[in-house]
């Protein structure tokens, strides 16, 4: 389709000045364009949408195949080049069986073709399951068919000529319809039947196709329906919240139209217009369809599940990885602390066992000393003969000496036990201190997480200011050299 449509020019427009400023702005913008090979704007728009879909781009970049004849290899090579500079799509055209680059083709057709040719693990995020059921008037199931889909076609035939709505198209798609003369095997007769549609497996990326090109039986040819469309920013289907992130627009007629893509970046959350090699920040007018307003040109609407979060930029990733390492260290500390506590528990049990055994031994020895002392005293008081008493006294003295020795040994053992207990208490206090240090380390991790979040907010604030500067420079470039400030004249 012809891409040589002229852009609107204001009074005093200087094409050379604008071109030179555009080259300077290319150093600022992160996104590059694709060269139109003749009428390949339909493919350029689709490829830019896939490139700007985060999960799909990451899947393509992870490809490790070496066969240059596959779509997977060609897409990886194209995406790698597109990251740094403007490029063309010549290498991928033969893989898609596109021979005549000047032939007009449909963007939706080639989106589905690309998704069906790439690795199924990559394209499954775009694939859903739709179910058609048919029941007779008595509730018997006549047919139940479930099949995959890449896009959901929304009919605009029942809308007015001036305006139509995406929500009305969805209601029409899921609305039940009644048909007559349907044969039911269980009723064994023809009867009225109800046909209903249901999306049983919502995809991560939902693509809505507005059926603008329809066959006109009166004219006996295909015509384009040019009604304006109310495009909602968010949708809720099958308990899933979807958010609009890309629109493929078609302007012009069926035979002489042009495709562009308006896409929201998952990196800076700004909307960009991809018009072949021309990439620019979307103006408020060109993004009217993302604010629940009417737009004249939407053809493909791309929604992603709200649960798909944007990938942080490189600086944020590094901080998050650092935080993860700190959390891993904390887990290791907790594991070591757990092991130490277990060892402490076993040592405590062993110590109590030793203390109990020693206490019992001391008690037995003390009891023995007491009994022997009692026996000696009783013998002394019994009034036995002096000779026998004289013979008994030395023996009693020797026993007393032995008992004193035993008592000293017992006291020595007791002191050793007390010393061992004090060492155990020191070790237990050390474990408590180690636990307190671990708690301080955990608080440090939380503090770093808050600092990272503040840095992330600062990055987004700088991006918003940069976007404002870009728009001011682009606007000043279109005013012409006479209206430029002195500094900008020197730049040109």
* Secondary structure tally: strands: 17
Number of helices: 10
**Biggest pleated sheet:** 8 strands, mixed
Cα separation of the termini: 34 Å
- Cα-atom Rg, whole angstroms? 42 Å
Strand content: 15-25%
Chain oligomer state: single chain
Anisotropy-based shape: elongated
- Helix and strand pattern: HHHHHHEEEEHEEEEEEEEEEEEEHHH
Class per helix and strand makeup: alpha+beta
- Global mean pLDDT: 79
Low-confidence stretches: 1-9, 308-312, 385-395
Q: Helix coverage percent of residues?
A: 40-55%
Structure write-up:
The protein has about 500 residues and is an alpha+beta fold. The chain is about 50% helix and about 20% strand. It has ten helices and 17 strands. It has helices at about 15-25, 40-50, 55-60, 70-80, 105-115, 120-125, 165-175, 315-380, 385-480, 485-490, and strands at about 130-135, 140-150, 150-155, 165, 175-185, 190-200, 205-210, 215, 220-225, 230, 235, 240-250, 260-265, 270-275, 280, 295, 300-305. Strands 3, 7, 11, 12, 13, 14, 15 and 17 form an eight-stranded mixed sheet that branches. A four-stranded antiparallel sheet has the order 2-1-6-5, with no helix packed on it. Strands 4-10-16 form a three-stranded mixed sheet. Strand 1 and strand 2 (about 140-150) form a beta hairpin. Helix 1 (about 15-25) packs antiparallel against helix 9 and helix 8 (about 315-380) runs antiparallel to helix 9 (about 385-480).
